[in-house]
């Protein structure tokens, strides 16, 4: 007997049976509602139920909808999984593309760096060859040292020009030049730092850059109290006029 009840219990718990039961209620909800909740006699309720239900609504339609559910549910589940997996797939693809582009960019930068190093190494080799040739051609120490000194001076000037050409004035530099312009082109170091509105380290850094790139020059080293004066160069005056800072 226990086996029979267990078998019945497993059938009842089956999702197919549950869907069949839901289908039958859906097709016959009005007669079932009347049968359970109407205030009339039991005979009247049963009679109403019999009149408004039949084999089709009680068995055939629910069984048909259950079979349809059995056939369609796996496909609906598959479609649901496929749709939900698309965003994940797109995200993974996007991450892979980003990683691929990152690797390509790193390779490009590495190739550029290798090319630059190769060019620098070749320049060092060529310079060493020229120095060796100079040593071989000029046997006299004095002549060789003179020529080497001239070459070193030329190289230093070339390096300085390259450094200067890479320099460009920013807003901080222009503010320093404007202050100098308002002070008729000459200002003490302390006045210039105090008037800049920047902290001391930044002000001094900007001033040093202007000195290195020939926008300022040291005018008076004995101004008083251990202070000294800066002066605008012709290059700075030209920049101030062309930029419209001096009316």
Short description:
The chain has ten helices and three strands. By secondary structure, it is mainly alpha-helical. α2 crosses α5 (55-137) and α3 packs antiparallel against α4 (42-51).
Which descriptors apply to this entry?
3 strands; 247 residues; single chain; Arc Repressor Mutant, subunit A; elongated; transmembrane; mainly alpha; transmembrane helix
**Arrangement of strands in the largest sheet:** 1-3-2
Category from helices, strands and their pairing: mainly alpha
List the secondary-structure elements in sequence, H or E.
Answer: HHHHHHHEHHEEH
Helix content: over 70%
Tell me about the biggest sheet? 3 strands, antiparallel
Based on CA atoms alone, the radius of gyration comes out at 47 Å
Quaternary state of the chains: single chain
What overall geometry do the principal axes of the alpha carbons give? elongated
Low-confidence stretches: none
Q: What is the count of DSSP helices, taking H or I runs of 4+ residues?
A: 10
Mean pLDDT over the residues: 78
Write up this protein.
The chain has a three-stranded antiparallel sheet with strand order 1-3-2. It has ten helices and three strands; from the N terminus they run H-H-H-H-H-H-H-E-H-H-E-E-H. A hairpin with a 2-residue loop joins strand 2 (216-224) and strand 3 (227-232). By secondary structure, the protein is mainly alpha-helical. It is elongated. Among the domains are: 2-82, no CATH class; 171-242, Arc Repressor Mutant, subunit A (Orthogonal Bundle).
């Amino acid at each position: 007997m226990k086996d029979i009840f267990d078998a019945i219990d497993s059938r009842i718990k089956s999702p197919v049976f549950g869907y069949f039961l839901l289908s039958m209620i859906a097709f016959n909800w009005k007669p079932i509602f009347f049968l359970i909740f109407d205030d009339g006699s039991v005979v009247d309720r049963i009679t109403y139920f019999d009149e408004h239900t039949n084999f089709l609504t009680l068995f055939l339609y629910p069984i048909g909808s259950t079979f349809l559910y059995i056939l369609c549910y796996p496909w609906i589940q598959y479609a649901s999984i496929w749709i939900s997996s698309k965003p994940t797939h797109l995200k993974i693809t996007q991450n892979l593309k980003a990683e691929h582009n990152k690797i390509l960019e790193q390779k490009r930068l590495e190739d550029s760096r290798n090319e630059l190093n190769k060019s620098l190494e070749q320049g060092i080799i060529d310079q060493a060859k020229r120095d060796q040739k100079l040593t071989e051609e000029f046997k006299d120490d004095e002549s060789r040292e003179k020529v080497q000194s001239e070459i070193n001076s030329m190289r230093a000037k070339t390096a300085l020009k390259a450094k200067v050409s890479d320099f460009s004035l920013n807003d901080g530099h222009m503010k320093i030049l404007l202050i100098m312009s308002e002070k008729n082109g000459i200002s003490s170091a302390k006045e210039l730092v105090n008037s800049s509105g920047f902290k001391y380290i930044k002000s001094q850094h900007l001033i040093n850059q202007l000195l290195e790139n020939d926008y300022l020059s040291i005018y008076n080293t004995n101004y008083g109290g251990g202070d000294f004066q800066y002066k605008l160069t012709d290059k700075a005056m030209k920049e101030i006029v062309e930029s419209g800072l001096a009316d």
